[in-house]
Each structure stands twice: as structure tokens, then as C-alpha cells.
Amino acid sequence: MTNGAKPTSIFPGQRSAAQGYSSGTASIVIGLRRAPPNQRSSSLPPSPAFPFLFLFFFFWRPRPGKDVGTREAGVGQLASVGKDEKGNMLGGPLRRILPEISRLPKGYSTVGKEMTVREALNSALDEEMSADPKVFLMGEEVGEYQGAYKITKGLLEKYGPERVLDTPITEAGFTGIGVGAAYYGLHPVVEFMTFNFSMQNESRVIGTLILFSAAASVLGATVSVGCLFDEFKPAKLGKGAGSMEFDLGIVAIDHIINSAAKMNYMSAGNISVPIVFRGPNGAAAGVSSQHSQCYAAWYAHVPGLKVLSPYSSEDARGLLKAAIRDPDPVVFLENEILYGQSFPVSDEVLDSSFCLPIGKAKIEREGKDVTITAFSKMVDYALQAAEVLSKEGISAEVINLRSLRPLDRRTINASVRKTNRLVSVEEGFPQHGVGAEICTSVIEESFEYLDAPVERIAGADVPMPYAANLERLAVPQVDNIVNAVKRACYRSVPMAAAA
Amino acid sequence: MPPLRRLTSLSCTISRLHRLPLLQAAAAGVRPSSSSASSDQSADTITVETSVPFLSHKCEPPSRVVKTTADELLGFFRDMARMRRMELAADALYKAKLVRGFCHLYDGQEAVGVGVEAAITRRDAVITAYRDHCVFLARGGTLVEVFAELMGRRAGCAKGKGGSMHLYKKANGFYGGHGIVGAQVPLGCGLAFAQKYLKEGTVTFTIYGDGAANQGQLFEAFNIAALWDLPVILVCENNHYGMGTAEWRASKNPAYYKRGDYVPGLKVDGMDALAVKQACSFAKEHALRTGPIILEMDTYRYHGHSMSDPGSTYRTRDEISGVRQERDPVERIRKLVLSHEIASAAQLKEIEKEVRKEVDEAITQAKESPMPDPSELFTNVFVDGCGSEVNYFMTQIIFPSIESFQTTADFMARPSESIGKK
After folding, report:
1. Which of A135, A203, A292, A483 is the most exposed place for a label (fewest CB within 10 A)?
2. Which fold would CATH assign to domain A114-204+250-358?
């Protein structure tokens, strides 16, 4: 079962309770972003049925087929994204949302062996801040708001406003300030984030409210539920904007590249920059072109930066701790959709001294016929593809890159030398992308071992469209990976022999 | 025998108490003067009135009356003469093609460099843009380090890997040296943030130009600095030309000391080292007590923007020579020294000769320094570990001195790259 983050209140974020609600069933549509204050209609008093219906749905839930909250269920649900958009908008996510809320909120506990990526990041930040007083957090909504994705939840209360700083929406300014503080010797963690839609934990609250308020209106009671909490965003719904994450990073990219990455080199070691830039990267769902780009290739291009991209909770914890302890600038590319996903973690991972090495990839699944490399969310798809392929007799080795710069060329090459075929998977644009680099690395170092040309799966070479069907076509799917592997496997005759 | 020499011999017999002002001057960061200074005269405070009053925005301006000492004035003279000489020598080196790429010269603006330094300690931080040779010198950098860095030699402060725009000396509180216009302002606010975070009681002087004064990131930095009360002093070196664009063509409001809006500001005669010192002392105290403050230094550069700019296409030669005659900072100090009879004209000439010799020797030493070793190409990318990714095969072809990989087995067996440290 998922270890949900301990909710501080039934309503996400202190602000929303203070701001009041607005009436109207139109506002109940999932994913509707909060309207500015002057456009909200006046609030009405809650109906008498409100508390009873709420309690009813709070404790009862429809049971889904799978055990929701386990990694398998999470994987299955990710696999169903976009497959069938008809009617799936409301049904699917709600089915997923409701079960979580029906349990009584538990205190956070490490007895359970599962952890969401969000918890992993939160605990990593917490432990590193506690271990080193020079570590501080800076970003939009990281403090009082508890973090736009609740990654920094509870940290303001624990460490105070001197170490958890809410910034104005001025990325270039506060990124430069973070880099300057790192010059002096502090260890800033700068979060990139713009606007605020909730992560998945709190959205289950909304789901419940929606369901019972719908029931309440059926019963003829007036409903005054507002769905206009800023943090509200059920996962994978088409509507609603997510964060600009690293899209906002490019506003500040001058400081990341010119002030941070290059400083140790051009000062010949006089000034080092122990800073971490973190935030969600890549596509969410339905957030369109300006909010869906994967910046892995942009940052991994630059010498002087370390670029990490975790997949599981273990990755998230270990790599974030390593990043914070690292004396060089680190770009930490998270994934919004993975935040709520739960993974099993061992006791070693839960230990506060746990740390993963930077520059080492992980072999998530051993295989012998083909190597599939991926990072972040695509690892999930690659694992699913490997599962599909194993039923067809193809044994795929899945490598979770974890670190894009330095890239673990040794692991990739060793794997290709074993399997002789390579498929690289990434979410970003194909040209000059991570897959292009992996392909070249393998050609440079293991050319004789390749039995087939390297296959490269990437996002479509177009700005991300909004329409759900086009969006699905623009992002790699499990089928694409399966097809690429098959192409790599059945094409066993070297090209030259055909001439 | 000049009258001062007699006084000197007299002072030597006077008790050591008279040496105290020298120590005090040294502690304030001002170089003690040469032996020709009279030590008993240096015990006296000299009061000088600044040439123009301070203009203020949202604060009370400091007094126009500046207290200084003979030692300090002689120190200013020597330091500014050294800076002037260094910049002219850099000009000659550039024309001799020993310096490549960019070279932005500071001559004319020396008063800002020495004035800022006179008001602070080495624990305070200074950060500036690319016109950084003289500020580096003021912060305790040596001539050899500057010339060697300009020429890309090993003895340079950045081992020749930075160049003219990237001089650094963190131990002395000098953070560069930045090529991106305006970037140093948020960085400087970050330094001040760290000073406040660590409760050091020190300040940061962030220097930028009139060309950078319209940058958006400045206003973002002002906002955060004012919100969080950061101990930062924002020094706008207004030399009236952003590269080739005069300030009236670039800024709708060229009163840069007012551009901070809610951030108080002072306009200072940037050619008067004492006025600069007064303003900076005032600003340091303000920053520690309240928060950020802007100091606009009304200054001038004699050279063009950089060595590729003759400096005469957008301004007249008359203007340049006019400023040189009426407002030159070194001449101002020379007149002050002479009028207060701290030293004679001949002694000042002597100082200038010494400085010239220093600069020539430094150039000779810098020229003797070799170019960096080719292996330095790959060092310092990261603090630990290698940092360069795609070069193992290149290195074995081009630089056999670097650990090379003869076979694929060697390659596979190589030590792994940077590992996250505990």
C-alpha cells in the first residue's frame, strides 16, 4: 500500500481554506484551474448534507481490480494513459484517486517498505538539510505553500524561513542569487517551478469531494464545493497546466551555464559552485508545447554540469543526496508524473547516509538479446516493453541511465557487448538528443559487437501538441519500444553484407 | 635636501606612536606610502571637501567633508598610478598581439577601484563585470597574475584558462570577472545573501555599468535584495557609454541611482577617490543596518569599450581630452598631495617611475611564464574527477602524456568517473 504523505489538513494548502469556495457545478469539472479572485462567484454556505456525504465517501470506495498503490498498479495505470481517451478522463483517474482517500490518514512511517518518489525527495532534502547547515532551499512556493508538488512539504516548519526561501517569480534573479551564494560557500538547492497544480496526493481529496457533491446535487442539496484549489491536479488528465518546471529553467539558463557550469574551469579551481538545480522535467499531460520539453540534452551538453535523472524512489533519494553533497553544479531532472508513483525500498535506501554514485547507471532488468537504455519515466515504459517482449521470446536488458552527465558509457557498452543490439529511449526531441550520444558512444567503442544498427526512440520532432491523440503520438509509447526492439532483433544481417 | 627629508629624519627619532597611523592605514586596506612620506604629518587628519555634493534618492546623503590622511592620499596616488600604468601596458601588449580576444581597459575609472577598496576589508566581497583588471589589483591581486592571465600563461591567476574577463581571487574576496552583462548583479546579491546567512557582518559590492543598468535580472535582484534585506551595495559605474551607445540613447531614465525605486541611491563623483570612499563607507554601514543601496559613480573611461573599439566614433576627442584635463582622478590626488604638501612634485614623479618599473618587471616575468600544459585542458571541469566526457580517444591521439587507452580492455578497465562524495 502506498505510504501517503501525511496531510496537514483535509484541504490542500492553507491558502485555499482561507480563500473560500465558490459555487456552481461548472467549477467541479476536473482540472479547472483556479480562477483569479475577482472572477470567482461569491461563496454560499455549505449544504447540510455536506458532512454526511463526505464521511460516507471518505470511508467507502469502489474496489478496482488491482491493488492500487503498489508499483504494479502504478505501472498498469501509466500504461493505460492515452490508450482510450473516450470516457477515460473521468473514470480512470477517479478510480485511482478514490481508493487512496478511503484509508484513514496514517502518520509517515518507515516501517512500510514502499515509498513514493515525492516522499523520497522530501526525505532526502530533509536529511541533507539536517546534516549540513549550509544547505538551503530556494524556489517558488517551496515554503509556505509546502511546495508546488509538495516535494518540500514540512521543511519550512522544520528549518525556518531562513533556510527555506519563497522567491518571487523571477528565475533569472533568484537563480543568479543561488549561484552567488554557492560561490561564497553555501549549498543552495534551487527549485524550478511556476504554477501550482497539485500533485496526486491531494487530488484524491478533490475526487472524493467531487463524487459526493455530485451525489448531493442529485439529492437536491446545494453544493458549495469549490474545486478551485491551486494545487489541484489529478494525474494524467488532459486539462490543467502543470509546471513549467525546467521550461522555466531556460529563463535562468544563462546562470546555470555561464555562471555555474563554467566557473570552476575558468577560475582554474578558485571558485567552485556546489549548487543543485532541481525540478520536474519533460511532459506532463495536456500541457502543450511550452511546458512539455525535456531539457536533458540541453544540460547534458555542457561540460561542468552534472545531470541526473532519477526514476524510482531509490534513485530519487540516493541521487538527490549525492547531488546535494556534490561540490559541482548538478541539474536534477525529476518527472512530475513519477512523483506520486510508489516503489519498494530496502532498509539501506531508508538509511540517512544512503547515497548513490553519480555517473553509474543501473541495470533494472537483466537480459541477453537486446539492450534498452532509458531514463526517468521512459524506464517504466522500457520495463513494460521488456515484459511484452519476454512473452515473445526476446529477452531485453533495461538500463536505467540515472546519470546523463557523466554518462555511464562503460555500463552501456558492456551491456551492448553482451547483447549486441541497442535501443535507446528518451522522451525529448530526437535531434542531438541523449539517444544520439549513446548511439555514437556505442559505435565509437563497441562497433564490432553490434549486430544491428542502433535504434533510437524519442519524442516526435515537433513542439508538443495539445490534442490528446496527437499528444499520444508525440510521446514514445510501449508499442514504439517493442517495435524498435523487434526491428533491432530481426535485422540480424549486417548492412554491408547486403551489398 | 627637500624639506620633507629633514622632517623624516626628525620623525625617526620620535617615539613609535607616530607609526600607528601607518598601521591603521594598512588595516583599512590602504597601502602604506613609500618612505618619502612624513610619519608625523600622517598622524594628522586632512579634511577635504568633495568637488560636488552627493545627490540622494530615498536616503540622507553623507557629508561632503571627507577625512583622510597623508598616507591614504599617497596610497591612492600610488595605487591609481599603478592601475593607470598597468592598463596602458595592457594596451601595448594587445597591440603587440600578446593579448588576444577581449581586453577592456579601466583607465579613467581608477578612483572607483581605490575608493571602494578604501572603505572595506578583505572579508567583504567585491564582484564586477569584465572591466576587472584594476579591481582585481585593488583587491590584492598582483601585476604578474594580471599580465600572465592576459597573455594566457601559467602564472596567471586562473592559470591562463580564464583570460582578461575572468580574474578571480576568492581568498581576498574578489569574485570576478564576468563576461555576461548584468549577470554579476544577481550573483553579487547571492554573495550578500550568503554573508547574511552565515551572519558574517560583511557586505558585498556589486559593480555594474550603465550598459547593464537596464537588464531585467538587475531589477529581479533589486527586488529580492530589498525584500530580504541583503547587505549588498550596487555600484553603477556610469561611464556614460554602454559600448558605443551613449546613456541618453540607451536609458529612458539615466538617473541610475534612482532606478532602484524602493532601493535608496546616491550619485557620486566617480573621478574623486575621496568622494567614492566616503560614499562606500556610508553605503557599507547602510547595507549592514538596513539593506541594499545603489551608488552611481559618475566616471569616465579614456579608452574605447574594448581594444577593438577606437572610442572615437561615438564621442569626440575633445570630450575625452576635456575630461582628462579637468577630472582626471590621478591628477586630482596629485593636486591634493601637492597642495597639502604631503610630497613634492619630484617625489610623486619618483613614485610614478617606481610604478612603471614595477609594471615593466611584471610584464617581463609574465612573458617568461610558459603556456599551460596541454593536460590542463581537461582539469578543473569538475572539482573532483575528470568532467570531460568524449575525449578519451582524442587524448590518446593528441596528448600521449595523458593516460591513454591502448586497447578496449584498457578502456573498459579504466577508473570510473566522478562518484558522488559522502
Report:
1. A483
2. Rossmann fold (3.40.50)
Nearest to B333 by CA among B82, B89, B11: B82
Chain B residues in contact with A322 (beta carbon < 8 A): 420-421
- Which residues of chain B are within 8 Å of residue A189 when distances are taken between CB atoms? none
Query: How large a percentage of chain A has pLDDT more than 70?
Result: 65
Q: Which of A18, A10, A22 has the alpha carbon at shortest distance from A55?
A: A10
pLDDT digits (tens, 9 = 90+) for B365-414: 999 999 999 989 999 999 987 777 765 544 444 444 334 433 334 444 45
pLDDT reading at B188 higher than 80: yes
Cell reading at A389: 517482449
Residue A193: its pLDDT value, please?
A: 73
Yes or no, beta carbons of A271 and B198 under 8 Å apart: no
With beta carbons under 8 A apart, name residues in chain B contacting A183. Answer: 170, 175, 187, 190-191, 194
Average pLDDT of chain A to the nearest whole number: 77
Grid cell 561542468 — which residue? A304
Q: Which of residues 356-385 of B touch A (CB under 8 A)?
A: 379-385
Q: Domain A359-494: give its CATH code.
A: 3.40.50.920
Q: Is the pTM of this model over 0.80?
A: no
Q: Report the residue of chain A nearest B414, measured CA to CA.
A: A410
Closest partner residue to A267 among B158, B191, B389, by Cβ? B158
Pick the closest to residue B217 from A253, A389, A79 (CA basis). Answer: A253
Q: State whether B382 and A304 contact (CB < 8 Å).
A: yes
> What superfamily does domain B46-368 belong to in CATH?
Thiamin diphosphate (ThDP)-binding fold, Pyr/PP domains (3.40.50.970)
Fold match between A114-204+250-358 and A359-494?
yes
**CB–CB of B416 and A359 under 8 A?**
yes
* Span A210-223, average pLDDT: 48
- How confident is the model over B42-65, as pLDDT tens digits? 568 999 999 899 999 999 999 999
**For chain B, what is the radius of gyration of the CA atoms?**
23
Closest CA to B109 of B10, B237, B280, B275: B237
Taking the C-alpha atoms of residue B333 and residue B23, their distance in angstroms, rounded to an integer, is 22
Q: In this structure, are strands B65-69 and B45-49 parallel, antiparallel, or unpaired?
A: antiparallel
Annotated catalytic residues of A are: 171, 291
Residues of B in Cβ contact (< 8 Å) with A185: 194, 198
- Measured in angstroms, the CA of B35 and the nearest CA of chain A are apart by 35
Residues of A with CB below 8 A from B421's CB? Answer: 322, 325-327
What 3 state SS string does A264-312 have?
HHHCCCCCCCCCEEEEECCCCCCCCHHHCCCCHHHHHCCCCCEEECCCC
What is d(CA A103, CA B73) in angstroms, rounded to the nearest whole number?
A: 77
Report domain extents, chain A: 114-204+250-358, 359-494
Among B365, B302, B361, smallest CA distance to B149 is for B365
Is B179 within 8 Å of chain A by CB?
yes
pLDDT per residue as tens digits for the range B145-154: 999 999 999 9
Beta carbons of A181 and B194 less than 8 Å apart = yes
Task: Locate the domains of chain B by residue range.
Answer: 46-368, 374-418
Of B105, B103, B100, B76, residue with least CA distance to B88: B105
A231 or B81: whose pLDDT is higher? Answer: B81
Identify which of B186, B389, B419 has the shortest CB distance to residue A180.
B186
In the numeric block, the cell 506532463 is attached to: A284
Q: Give the nearest chain B residue to A175 (CA atoms).
A: B186
- H helices of B208-272, in order, are 216-227, 247-250
